[in-house]
Amino acid sequence: MSSKRAGGPRIAVIGGGTGLSTMLRGLKRRSRNITAIVTVADDGGGSGMLREDLGMPPPGDVRNCIQALANTEPIMEKLLAYRFTEGRLKGQSFGNLFLAALNGMSGTFDEAVRRMSDVLAITGRGLPVTNENVYLAAEFSDGTEAVGESHIADFKKGTDKRISRVRLIPERPPALPEALEAIREADMIVLGPGSLYTSIMPNLVTDGVAEAVAASGAFKIYVLNVMTQDGETEGYTASDHISALFSNSGARLFDWCLANSREIPSELAGRYRAEGAGPVDIDDEAVHKLGVGIIRAPVASWASGYIRHDPDALARELMRAYREKSHTRVYE
Questions:
Q1: Where are the domains of the chain?
Q2: Of the candidates 18, 62, 22, which has an alpha carbon nearest to the alpha carbon of residue 40?
Q3: What's the rounded Cα separation, in Å, for the pair 118 and 102?
Q4: What's the pTM value of the predicted model, to 2 decimals?
Q5: Rounded distance, CA 93 to CA 10, Å?
Q6: Quick one: which of 25, 120, 182, 264 could link to 35 by a disulfide (CB 3.0–4.6 Å)?
Q7: Which fold has domain 11-325?
Q8: What share of the chain is helix, strand, coil (3-state, %, to 5)?
Q9: Which H or E run contains 320?
Q10: DSSP class of residue 265?
Q11: Cβ-proximal residues to 214 (8 Å cutoff; 6+ apart), any chain
């Protein structure tokens, strides 16, 4: 697992949503050998409209990752991110429509993603985790179930029940062979950051992914969210996040967890608490009992007014962990 590999180490990142695309903006400056493996279970917003109208996998998460990896002029980036403000296309992004058009010209969704990647000359590559048209279902601790990613958070809000398991419909669709190959060949595998149950988990319950990650000899690390998420992980500690990943996938997927150490301003934290979210508590002893080591680093940012990972700080700490911890097992 040499970091001297031409273009940098081979990195497979697994997830979806804004967390994944944020991380990619930093990682692409440190390696050209990145493969982003992205969930396709979204059924809300503009992506949901396109999958319903055109019968295609939702383009939004994959499109965000391609944009993050793209090397384009500022005007092109603005064009891809542009959202229509009126008419039947209100709320729809041009980037989603662009990928939908390429999908209509291509035999498979991953071929459309590859064509968009070529047009934008991206660093590395983005892959949908599967070409199947899948929906996410969440089973709760009280025996109830919600179907559709866009419905899960609203179904859970205001209750004290927890999500006990997620699955895809149809269950365990085949993973894209290129995604499994990227995992097998990776020097480093990164899970997250992103919504635990709706961005990361859908990839892990796709047939072959969790098994490939568990079998890999790569340096494997989970990027813990800075904040809990109302409707998914309110009240969750670091060990709760990790336990959920291990139990849902049926495998011990990683040895290390990267957690933010930067203190959140009290005023901003208070605003999040009013919305049912808060900083994730790092319960070291419980994490260690799971066989996982904690790496603390100042990787949070709130320059935008929202608490997010800082792309450059996160990428820097991931690469440092890769260099320093690659040959270290935490607990046998």
A1: 11-325
A2: 62
A3: 12
A4: 0.94
A5: 31
A6: 182
A7: Rossmann fold (3.40.50)
A8: 40, 20, 40
A9: helix 311-325
A10: P
A11: 249, 251, 252, 253
- pLDDT by residue (tens digit) across 88-129? 899 899 999 999 999 999 999 999 999 999 999 999 999 999
Which tokens belong to 264?
């959140």
Tokens (6 digits) for 272 = 């999040």
Tell the residue number behind the tokens 């949070």, with chain if given.
300
Relative orientation angle of helices 45-54 and 60-69, to the nearest 10 degrees: 120
- Average pLDDT over all residues of the chain: 94
Query: What residues are paired with 219 via a beta bridge?
Result: 188
CA nearest to 238, candidates 298, 295, 187, 304 = 295
C-alpha pair distances (Å), 148 with each of 168, 299, 319: 9, 32, 35
Chain centroid, CA 97 distance in Å: 22
Q: What is the pLDDT of residue 4?
A: 61
198 φ, ψ (degrees, to nearest 5): -110, -10
- In this prediction, residue 5 carries a pLDDT of 76
DSSP 168-218: EESSSPBPPHHHHHHHHH-SEEEE-SS-IIIIIHHHHTSBTHHHHHHH--S
**Residue 281: pLDDT above 90?**
yes
**Secondary structure E strands in the chain:** 11-15, 34-38, 125-128, 135-140, 145-147, 163-169, 188-191, 219-223, 256-260, 293-297, 300-301, 308-309
